[in-house]
Design a protein that fits this description.
The structure holds three protein chains of three kinds.
Chain A lengths: L1 H35 L6 H18 L4 H29 L6 H21 L15 E3 L2 E3 L1 H23 L1 H11 L1 H6 L4 H23 L10 H15 L4 H22 L4 H15 L19
Antiparallel strand pairs in A: 1-2
Chain B lengths: L6 H23 L6 E7 L6 H20 L8 E7 L4 H13 L5 E4 L3 H14 L3 E3 L16 E3 L4 H15 L3 E7 L2 H13 L6 E8 L7 H9 L4 E5 L2 H14 L4 E4 L2 H7 L12 E4 L6 H14 L7 H20 L5 H8 L32 E6 L2 E4 L2
Helix pairs in contact in B: 2-11, 3-4, 5-6, 7-8, 8-9, 11-12
Chain C lengths: L1 H24 L2 H26 L8 H18 L3 H23 L5 H20 L1 H4 L5 E2 L4 E2 L2 E2 L1 H25 L1 H11 L1 H6 L4 H27 L1 E2 L6 H14 L4 H17 L7 H15 L3 H17 L3 H8 L1
Antiparallel strand pairs in C: 1-4, 2-3
Helix pairs in contact in C: 1-7, 2-7, 2-10, 2-11, 2-12, 3-4, 3-5, 3-10, 4-10, 7-8, 7-10, 8-10, 11-12, 11-14, 12-14
The chains are: A mainly alpha, B alpha/beta, C mainly alpha.
Chain lengths: 302, 389, 326
């Protein structure tokens, strides 16, 4: 019995922490989708820029972590704001192919990756574990402290976002904007400010996700993309437009990956994730958890 | 609205002018001490860009040095650099451009094995010699006759044999393998499985990890539970650091040998260096020999940045220096075949890679530079490598 | 209307003739550029039919590009099937796959279609990487050169083959744009429900556009395989699908000329920026950003507007006269 426990617990923990990471990025996507019905293809780059700022603050400016981390979050917020102001809002005003604003976010992402790449020579930007390399011992099972941090951060952020959405007037305005832009305008909600806010929040969430997972595997300027793709998969598997579903989708993907690595073979983890995606798209394209905690009024129109 | 009939005339004129100018260019160039164009294609972007950051400056530095000293028979070398982003199709496109637009008679290339495989095929077909810096794949071996493709990196089979010999010497007969899912990792694993029995070694478990994998705890636990005494690692920098972190997380400290000293020296910078203490690695280069130290100092002075003291810089140095030496020895830097033959005519070339006193260019029947006895085992302490006893 | 068409066709033939005569005068390198632009031009034209004219989203076009590249190559390597037979077989197979996929994919809307096509593209890429028996795996595979009458066909034959394919592709798209089918596609793009109400069989035309898209991508892939001489799955990753998309947006979504212009610009860019390799990613992002922000109709879409604005500036006196006359 002990043996089975010793086997399963690491799998669960790694799956949960990785899954929470994907879920956080999926949540970041969803925040924007909820307010603007757009997918931000530069999401991964938001995280990467935050990591770059954190790394630069730590190593070049010699700042302590408790200063660098907030700076990184600020950088993420700024990226979000800039993306929205520079390309999304102008494009939404014009009559263009619906895909254009999405392509616009991608162009900003590419510019960000290219710029960071030039400054760093596409070299790694390593960040140390926040609490050192010694594993935490919980009930005799060693766990990576960073992984635990990610799980805790995800729970905190999801709770915070829930509170924002359902217990504050601002959250009500955000929800209204996502549901129906025109009616919200009539109701006196500053729709453009809501869109901007959603990008800023999304940038901050992505920043947290990026900086928390950077100690696992050092980021380079081009590593935003893979994080963005994984978060996107979490979003699709979980549920489109439902923030809690996105997180759950991420956790599910993370757990499945961990199980595949643990019981089958590490080489097939990527393929496994992809198979899961295909299965979900075939049997329930709107996402496995799309109805979770969602009143009817918040679903997207698809 | 009437169409302006002259609208297209301007475009046609412009295009014709461009074509005319470029057609005349070769004639204009052939006039005076015309530069020798050398193509340089490598990864300036993409996952392998970090290697290029260390190696490209070496190539530029040597070219500048040669040009300052008067070039080759008074003709300066003009290095034409192109990014191939680890895409073989792009790399072949670069090679075509080097040959047809810039009339390059020799090319230097970097990094990934799949890119170099494509380049090798192109070189064989087009009869332009290419010397490559980093690819390790055994598919690039040319075992008989003269080759059009050369490289200064030791092929996989050499490093595997050296590593297995070391493990046998230390008495580790049950080993685990951790490597990349990319071709380099899988090729190394296949080679290990093929050669291990000859050394009395058994591979009891294996873990292939995809690039940018975040947490290797589960894989490491599996390797630990399989009863392996030692780990053979063939993975890239970030993933190697991940391996070390996972091993310290799980509390397992077996003997680890990493097959590429280049990757491990970078890996030690991506995590706490103490995690790698006691690991060993190997490379076909003696970093303590005078020429190696001279090269490190020169590169440090040239770039103004710290230099990884391992084979990366040395193999780049050898590649470009051999290219320059071949140009000189060819007697005719405008003849690709003469340049190719000259690669085999450099018996007194002093190598930066290889063991002390390692000399000589390429030898017919072998298109890589080093041998099994050039492989030296290093141990890692505090993020630095030093030769093992 | 007819006069315009005659002029357009004359110009097309003129350019084709110039390109055809190219090998006689110019360095091989410029031929190579024409070859590259033609290949990506065909791909862009195909994607433009589906995204520009029909208004849909396809983010996995590299999947068909991949099938078109690998199938003739594997047939040649494994079963010694001649390239000129493998080529159409590859295209037919790609169209078949596209036809099968059209049923689940085309009924999706907007984002769902984007995700669906993206997944298809990723699936093809992963299969190409993980199944060495099928495709030579991640290491890649050498493409045997095309043989003609016993010997190597040589670059010249290949060059003309590509030119002919490109010309055919462009003419097909050109006539399609003017025909009833083209008008139906544009109607679907503008408003699907209205088009349906007008009696247009939306499903049929969408499928048609999708099949043309996949056929063109497969043709481009086949030609690409021969010219590259070496195939590796990394060439068919997500980035390729996106870059073709970028080409048609930069050039001008919904115009054939735009597709070709966009293909030309994005393909030639790395060769133009020879001296500043590290900046390529930044420049690509900037170009896309500037086009989307300041010229969303693409280059071909915006230039006529600029031109007419310039001309209007030159003839201010004409306007009051016209007003006075009426």
């Amino acid at each position: 019995m002990n043996n089975i426990l010793a086997d399963i617990v690491p799998i669960l923990i790694v799956g949960l922490s990785l899954g929470s990471l994907f879920g956080l990025v999926g949540l970041a996507y969803t925040v924007i989708i909820n307010a603007t019905q757009l997918v931000n293809f530069g999401q991964g780059e938001f995280a990467m820029v935050a990591v770059a700022v954190c790394w630069a603050s730590l190593t070049k400016l010699g700042l302590p972590l408790y200063v660098a981390f907030p700076l990184a979050i600020l950088a993420g917020a700024l990226m979000g704001y800039l993306t929205n102001a520079a390309i999304v809002t102008p494009l939404l005003k014009r009559d263009v192919h619906p895909f254009y604003p999405i392509l616009g976010t991608m162009s900003v992402g590419t510019i960000a990756a290219g710029t960071v790449g030039i400054f760093t020579g596409f070299y790694w930007m390593p960040i140390e574990h926040f609490f050192g390399n010694e594993p935490l011992q919980l009930a005799g099972v060693p766990m990576d402290s960073q992984g635990v941090l990610i799980i805790l951060a995800t729970v905190a952020i999801v709770t915070g976002y829930w509170y924002l959405l359902h217990k504050t007037r601002l959250g009500l305005a955000l929800r209204a904007t996502g549901f129906n832009r025109e009616v919200s305008l009539l109701a006196g909600i500053q729709v453009s400010k809501m869109a901007s806010l959603s990008f800023v929040i999304s940038g901050m969430i992505a920043a947290v996700a990026g900086v928390l997972c950077a100690p696992f595997s050092a980021f380079t300027a081009t590593d935003g993309l893979i994080l963005g793709i994984n978060g996107f998969i979490a979003l699709i598997v979980g549920g489109w437009g439902n923030p809690y579903a996105a997180v759950l989708g991420g956790v599910l993907v993370g757990l499945i990956r961990a199980v595949i690595v643990g019981y089958i073979s590490s080489a097939h983890a990527e393929l496994g994730t992809f198979v899961v995606l295909m299965v979900v798209l075939t049997i329930k394209p709107q996402g496995l958890f799309s109805g979770f905690m969602m009143p009817k009024t918040m679903n997207s129109r698809t | 609205m009437t169409r302006n009939p002259f609208r297209y005339l301007k475009t046609v004129l412009a295009v014709s002018a461009l074509l005319l100018i470029s057609a005349l260019q070769p004639a204009l160039a052939a006039a005076a001490g015309a530069p020798i164009n050398v193509g340089f294609t490598t990864d300036f972007s993409g996952p392998a860009a970090t290697l290029t950051m260390q190696e490209a400056p070496v190539v530029e530095m040597i070219v500048k040095e040669i040009n300052k000293a008067g070039g080759i028979n008074g003709r300066p070398i003009n290095l034409i650099t192109q990014d191939n982003a680890s895409d073989p199709a792009k790399a072949v496109g670069n090679a075509k451009m080097f040959k047809e637009k810039y009339d390059c008679k020799v090319i230097i290339a970097g990094v990934t094995s799949s890119v170099c495989l494509a380049l090798k095929n192109w070189a064989d077909k087009n009869h332009v010699p290419i010397i490559a810096i980093d690819p390790a794949s055994d598919r690039l071996l040319v075992k008989d006759g003269k080759s059009w493709f050369f490289r200064t990196e030791d092929p996989i089979f050499l490093s595997v044999e050296a590593a297995l010999a070391r493990m046998k010497k230390l008495g580790h007969t049950r080993i685990a393998f951790e490597g990349s899912t990319l071709a380099w990792g899988t090729d190394t694993l296949a080679m290990i499985k093929e050669k291990a029995p000859a050394y009395g070694i058994k591979v009891v478990s294996e873990a292939l990890v995809e690039p940018k994998a975040k947490d290797l705890t589960i894989q490491v636990k599996k390797l630990k539970d399989s009863g392996a005494q030692a780990v053979f690692c063939a993975d890239y920098e970030a993933e190697t650091a991940g391996l070390a972190k996972a091993m310290s997380s799980v509390g397992w400290k077996p003997y680890v040998i990493h097959v590429s000293a280049a990757n491990i020296t970078s890996a030690t910078k991506l995590g706490a260096p103490e995690m790698f203490n006691g690991w060993e690695t190997l490379q076909a280069a003696d970093i303590s020999k005078p020429l190696a130290r001279k090269v490190y100092d020169k590169v440090r002075a040239y770039t103004g940045k710290p230099v990884d003291e391992d084979k990366k810089v040395l193999r780049a140095y050898d590649a470009i220096s051999l290219l320059v030496a071949a140009l000189k020895a060819s007697g005719n830097p405008d003849d690709s075949t003469a340049i190719r033959d000259a690669f085999y005519k450099l018996p007194s070339y002093e190598r930066a890679t290889g063991k002390k006193g390692s000399k000589g260019g390429f030898v017919v029947g072998k298109n890589h530079l080093v041998d099994l006895d050039d492989e030296i085992i290093y141990s890692i302490k505090n993020g630095k490598i030093q030769p093992s006893k | 209307m007819l006069r315009n068409r005659k002029k357009d066709l004359l110009i097309i033939c003129g350019i084709a003739l110039a390109a055809g005569l190219l090998p006689l005068g110019v360095a091989e390198f410029y031929r190579y550029m024409v070859v590259l632009v033609s290949i990506y031009g065909i791909a862009a034209l195909g994607l433009n039919i589906f995204m520009g004219y029909c208004g849909q989203i396809n983010m996995g076009s590299a999947g068909f590009f991949c099938i078109g590249a690998y199938l003739p190559t594997m047939l040649q390597v494994k079963y010694n099937v001649h390239y000129l037979i493998g080529f159409p077989v590859g295209v037919v197979f790609a169209v078949l796959v596209a036809w099968l996929l059209s049923y689940p994919l085309l009924r999706l809307k907007g984002h769902a279609m984007a995700i669906g096509t993206l997944s298809f593209g990723m699936a093809v890429f992963l299969i190409a990487e993980r199944f060495p028996n099928l495709t030579g795996g991640a290491d890649g595979i050498t493409v045997p050169p095309m043989t003609l009458f016993g010997g190597d066909a040589g670059d010249k034959v290949y060059y003309y083959l590509i030119l002919v394919c490109f010309l055919a592709a462009y003419l097909i798209c050109y006539f399609l744009m003017e025909s009833r089918i083209g008008r139906a596609l544009k109607a679907i793009r503008d408003d699907e429900d209205a088009a349906s109400a007008l009696g247009i069989d939306v499903d049929y035309y969408k499928r048609f556009a999708w099949l043309i898209n996949s056929a063109f991508m497969a043709v481009a892939g086949s030609l690409f395989a021969q010219q590259a001489g070496f195939l590796s799955p990394s060439t068919f990753a997500l980035w390729t699908s996106i870059s073709i998309l970028v080409m048609i947006c930069v050039g001008g979504l919904g115009t054939n000329l735009g597709a070709v212009v966009g293909a030309a610009i994005m393909t030639l860019l790395p060769y133009l920026l020879v001296s500043i390799q590290e900046y390529i990613m930044l420049v690509q992002g900037l170009i896309l950003f500037c086009i989307l922000r300041f010229m969303p109709d693409g280059i071909v879409g915006t230039l006529p507007q600029l031109w007419s604005r310039l001309r209007r500036g030159k003839e201010p006196a004409a306007a009051p006269k016209a007003e006075a006359a009426s």
